C-alpha cells in the first residue's frame, strides 16, 4: 500500500506538477525545433537535479548532471491523423505493484519516411482524466528503458498541444522515460502490447 503524503510532500508534488506544466506550456508557445527542445532539456535537467520530487533518488542528486538523449531528429516530429475508437476500460500493468485504469479512445496514424505507423491513445480514468501515450520500440531494453517511454501524459503536464481538426502533433524528440526507469522504488505504467512499434525510435531520452 502506498504511504500517504505528508503536507510538505503534497505541496512539493503540487509545485513539481506546476513546473512541469509550465515547461510544456513554454514548448507549446515556442517555435518547434532544436532550440526549443534544448531549452526543454535544460529545464528538465534542473528539475531532476534539484527538486524534492525528482525521480532521481535523493542520494544521487548531488552527482547528477544531465539526462542522456538521442540527437535531435526533426523527422521524428510528425502529425498524426486521429481515428476515433471505442474501447473497454483497460488495466495497464505497472513496473511493480498496481495498475492504471485507462480507456482506448483513438488511434493515431502517422507516416515517417514512407512507412505508416499507428499508436493507440488512452484516456486515463485517474487523475480526473488525461491523455496518455506510452510506447515501446525496438530500442527498448537496450538503448532505452525496457518498459517503454512516454510521449504524452497530460494529467501530469506532459502535453505538446492539439489535437486540431482530428490531428495531433507527435514529436518523439520529447519522449521520456517513466520515473521507474530512474528509481526502481517507483511503480509506473508500462506501455501496453498494442503500443509496441517494430521500428527503432532514436529520438528522445535514452539510457546512458
List the helices and strands and how they pair.
Elements: H1 7-29, H2 34-50, E1 77-84, E2 89-93, E3 99-112, E4 115-124, E5 131-135, E6 149-153, E7 167-171
Antiparallel strand pairs: 1-3, 1-7, 2-3, 3-4, 4-5, 5-6
- Helices, by number, come to 2
Strand-residue proportion = 25-35%
Over all CA atoms, what is the radius of gyration?
17 Å
- If you average the pLDDT, what whole number results? 95
Report the end-to-end length measured between terminal Cα atoms: 32 Å
**Segments where pLDDT lies below 50 for 5+ residues?**
none
Largest sheet entry: 7 strands, antiparallel
Instruction: Assign a percent range to the helix content.
Output: 10-25%
Q: Can you write the helix and strand succession as a string?
A: HHEEEEEEE
- What structural class do helix, strand and pairing data support? alpha+beta
**What general outline do the C-alpha atoms trace?**
globular
Structure overview:
The structure is a single chain. The chain has 208 residues and is α+β, with helices and mostly antiparallel strands. It has one domain (7-195). Helix content is 19%, strand content 25%. It has helices at 7-29, 34-50, and strands spanning 77-84, 89-93, 99-112, 115-124, 131-135, 149-153, 167-171. Strands 1, 2, 3, 4, 5, 6 and 7 form a 7-stranded antiparallel sheet that branches. Helix 1 runs antiparallel to helix 2. The longest helix is centred in the N-terminal third of the chain and has 23 residues, at 7-29. The protein is globular and about 45 Å long. The protein starts with 6 loop residues before the first helix and ends in a 37-residue tail after the last strand. The mean pLDDT is 95.
